[in-house]
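In practice, a research group might receive sequence data for several interacting partners and want a quick structural hypothesis before committing to experiments. The following worked case mirrors that situation: the sequences arrive first, and a predicted assembly follows.
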Amino acid sequence: MINLNRRRFVQTAAASAIAAALPLIHTRGASAADPLKIGFVYVGPVNDGGWNTAHEAARQEMMKALGDKVTSSYVENVTEGPDSERVIRDFANQGCGLIFATSFGYMDALMKVAKDFPDIKFEMCTGFKKAPNVANYNIRFHEGRSVIGTIAGHLSKSGIGGYLGTFPVPEVVSGINSFQLAAQKVNPKFRTKVIWINTWYDPAKEADAARALIDQGCDVMTQHTDSPAAVQVCEKAGVPTFGQGSDQSQFAPTMCKTSTEDKWGPFYTNAAKDVLAGTWKNEDEYWGMKEGAIQMAPIKNVPDDVKAAGEAVIKGWMDGTYNCYAGPIKDQSGAIKVPEGQAMSDADILGLNWLVEGVDGKLS
Amino acid sequence: MSIDYLIAVMITVVGASTPILFAGLGELVTEKSGVLNLGVEGMMLMGAIAAFATVDQTGSPWLAVCTAAAAGALVALIFAVLTLSLSANQVATGLALTIFGTGLSTLIGQGFTGRAIHTFDTIFPPALATNPIGRVLFGYSPLVYFSFIMVALVAWFLRGTRAGLILRAVGENDLSAHSIGYSVVGVRYAAVLFGGAMAGIGGATFPLVLTPLWAEGLTGGRGWIAIALVVFAGWRPVWLLGGAYFFGLLTTFELYAKASGASWSSVLPSEAWAALPYIATVVVLAAISASKRAGGNAPACLGRPFIPSA
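A structural hypothesis for the assembly, expressed as tokens:
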């Protein structure tokens, strides 16, 4: 029993009052008592059924995992470039402790804002620039694309695959290269035709471009765009296709053979946990199938041996026995870029700006 | 280059041209009455979501065309009340209408993303479309044929009917038309509502013909192309038909050139290809201004509010 005399009581009360007030004083930084505010910037609508849907699902997964320790909000349809700086700066001014920018084109804007807010942690999706309070995070998309390429190589009779590209940024270039390299392993004569449509999201243009590829003789195709429009065109034309970002088989029940599923949840949950614990570092994370950051929707509507070939690639990535970027790899001019016995480094993959032999099309 | 390939290109061109043809035709009639409605994109999106929702709920693409027209006209009615009855600035109101239509269609569409619909089959028996010529003539969605009928009807209405003459008179000189007893505001209401209905059907072309899905901002800025198209065509319906197919050809051509991997296709960057319709419009505008018939066919009262007491 503590014998409280009047004087002691006053002291205790004063101390507890100060203790209660302390978190309020600290709120501008990050304190344990207050939830961590997290901002997300999305390049398209959250219900696009692809890229942005996957990010939004991951945000909700993070919220579920961390409960009332964090609060988060997002802004969708943010154009890449200058306008994104306004949105990122807004989040910073609102007292966010952690901000995720989920599209490559936000990088320069994010670096500018990050410089002005050294206490806030920034996470740049698919980026590569460095700062003390900026970390990059990325998925090894090419692992999924090589599963798709393997299946495409088996299914194509003409040996011509189509690839609907958005912008010639490393992420997309790497996807095209791994698709071609994997298909080539199955069918050495396989070629990939590429169309760049210079948008992530314009369903009618995506559909027209898909038609153009099919009319050019592509009897299997995939796309890097955000809507399921191209997948729908393939269903109608009877051309095998693959979804990207999330399972798109509902739009092409017979022709969508599998989809790459981006799982950003582990990135978001981990980063938020690290910030809460004060252990956040500006280390880049580059995760693939092994870490569960990219998964494949069930492979279906293909012959059993094709399904097995696709699953073997998945298993190969898991146990480290498969690598689509192992040499020898030649570029479009036939020059050897990766000699036999070597493999492309992560930095090379993240900065890819050349297409491999067998791809028809240029980087513009 | 095989005949099948050329036909495939043509079919894609027709698809790309039809929505801007509908929307442009509506805007042409609206502008001929002297009203500039920049809300085409918003009206198209309302038509698109109305059409998608109708097919999703009832399975009837024909009914969907009707609801799309109604949805477009309904949004146009807001514009008409604000600009014609309340004399609000047409440019500002039109821009607001685009923002409104984009937002509202997104809100309504939230429950419809991720669904697929089955729409029109071709109206002609498939047997007709087995050979190349047959495919080019008979292989399209009914909406495509409807767009041709509408071009003919609008051309005939403006040139050959008394009502069309009144509409043009209202657009050329509202005070004179008013002084000889025509209801300027009434005619303009009708023209704006027709423009809205056509934009709605143009928007409906997306889920019904091009991409049988609902996605936010489905029309991808084609409402603006439609407005440029009206200027490009010099406010003439038949030229509008040619212009729509020219614009459609430009956008499709780029994709096919790229897919073929032809070396000349990368001489021009894709951004420049995408800007071509607008560049063509500016060139035509300049040509119109430079020609002896100053102003060309532009309605003299375009964009001016009508205040009868003046």
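Before designing any experiment, note the following. The interface with chain B takes residues 44-45, 47-49, 77, 162, 193-199, 201-209, 211-213, 215-216, 218, 227-229, 232-233, 250-251, 360-362, 364 of chain A (CB under 8 Å). Chain A is about 40% helix and 20% strand.
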